[in-house]
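sorry for the late reply, my laptop died twice this morning and i had to redo everyting from scratch. anyway the thing you sent over, i finally got around to it. pasting the sequence first so we're on the same page, its 459 residues, then the predicted structure underneath. double check i copied it right bc i was rushing
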Amino acid sequence: MQILINIALVVIGVLLFIFIIFAHELGHFLTAKKSGVQVNEFALGMGPKLFSFQKGETKYSLRLFPIGGYCAMEGEDESSDNPRAFTNAKVWKRMIIIVAGATMNIIVGFLLMFVVTVSQTGYAGTTVTQFAPYAYTANAGLEVGDRITSVGGYSVANSRDLLLGIQLLPCEEVDPQSLTVYKQDCCTEGLRYLYTMRDELKLIDDDTANALYRDVLAPAAQSINKAQTKDEAYTLLCRAVDGYYTAAQAEKPKDFSYPTIEARDKRLRYVGDVSVIRNGEKTELPDVQFYTYKKSEDQTAVGIDFYLDPKDKNFFTVMEETFTGTVSLAKSVWKSFEMLVQGRFHLSDMSGPVGITKAVSDAAAVGLETGFGDAVLNIVFIMALISVNLGIVNMFPFPALDGGRFVFLLIEAIIRRPLPRKLEYIVNGIGLALLLVLLVVITGNDIFKLVTGTFPSMQ
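ok and here's the structure:
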């Protein structure tokens, strides 16, 4: 049964990928037909032809490898005397035809995001409603009621933006002797001691631990976060520990001692400026420290240590979350490109068809832990990201991409005459060669990571 489920997920992933390609080429096809441009072939897939049929002037074909497709228009890549050739159409019509593919990908991304959004039971907003007792952010500037609008300069329209903005923050050293860090440590030690009472001392059970977390640690942490000195913060921590024993009616062990706050020479935190709307006014919070923990011996990670306002599911919130979710995907694609230019990402971090297949597989595996439907939704979300990614990247002003061709048309519209076709063919040929080389390098790197087991995993 598990094999059949995996096969079904693979088929769903492939069909969605083909649908994304189909939508892109369909955008070119429909606008070309509407503009009176002759389309010689509309193909799905690349490589050897599996089958085809002719309808009117256009041949429709399905090819072996589902990694692309094309809409071959008369006179698109060579000179033609045909009055219905692409090069003979008015420049504004050609511009519409060129951008139609990317536009269709954005539309498909929106539709796929709608499927993901409408399947959720509710949504989180961007307003802080409560802090976890160990919250770093509670004593680093954030307050209950703050509506977060940007993190580290990354604009926030929904909870997905917020999470990504936090993850993109730099992890840097902060003053290990600061009051902020000390109060964070007091809250963390209060939580750690609670778990020690449950797991090591065996003085309380899970239900009691949960009650102490809610009734003792949470209010104590609020007081610690407001402390003006280290002595005050530590005194409040000790009172919280005493409160555990009192509330649980437990006896302190003979070797009892209060938690100690370890002094360290180095502290790492994810830090960034945060913009919020507080009491109706925009407020800038500099150097907010976010919950930072060790993912492994040499790797740190960041998490959210506060709760966000819930949003009811209705027609308006579904459409709002779908729209902002699609925009979030677009922003993440652009941010990734920006970080690549800045050197924060490298070519080795990029993925081609192999990497995409691995990502889809991982997303499906994670979803299967809770059910087949969740696995499908994870695949749909990845495909929404791919579709939006394809739409945006295709419009980059790089030769051989739609964006590069659009630049030629824009220049033609400005100077009111076409650039030499030979120049365009040479530039696009060079661009295509560079893209193919890049694809080979990225695919080779994907295969190497796959073989060596160094591919990042979602599990």
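Residues 2-116+370-452 form one domain.
thats about all i looked at so far, will dig more tmrw
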